[in-house]
Amino acid sequence: MPSAYIIANVDVTNPEQYEEYKKLSTIAMQASGAEVCIRGGKVEVLEGDWNPARFVMLKFPSVEQARAFYNSVEYEAAKKAREGAAVMRMLVVEGV
């Protein structure tokens, strides 16, 4: 079964409020067994027309488990805390 990655590009608009999202999303990641590959950090554009913000990449054993994380009670609480604090672009990608 191929692994899966959730990749997010986040524009934080309210840093103080976003801290609560980070706490709650950490709980959700731990509960789901996500492997954190990237969470913030310096971004350098090498090619293309990117407008880099904050990047997050989580690894899961399968697409189904990535979706289960996204739809979990724990992550629902994090999403609610994030409302008005950030613009989120998130996708799930099947790995190899």
Task: Give your account of this protein's structure.
The longest helix is centred in the first third of the chain and has 18 residues, at 15-32. The termini are close together. This protein has helices spanning 15-32, 63-70, 73-82, and strands at residues 4-12, 35-39, 54-60, 86-94. It contains 3 helices and 4 strands; from the N terminus they run βαββααβ.
Write the layout of secondary structure elements.
Elements: E1 4-12, H1 15-32, E2 35-39, E3 54-60, H2 63-70, H3 73-82, E4 86-94
Antiparallel strand pairs: 1-3, 1-4, 2-3
Helix pairs in contact: 1-2, 1-3
**Assigned CATH architecture:** 2-Layer Sandwich
- Strand proportion, as a percent range, falls in 25-35%
Widest β-sheet, arrangement of strands = 2-3-1-4
CATH topology: Alpha-Beta Plaits
Rg, Cα atoms, Å: 13 Å
**CATH class placement:** Alpha Beta
Quick tags:
96 residues; Alpha-Beta Plaits; four-stranded antiparallel sheet
In short:
With 96 residues, the chain is α+β, with helices and mostly antiparallel strands. It has a single domain (4-42, 52-94), classed as 2-Layer Sandwich (Alpha-Beta Plaits), CATH 3.30.70.100.
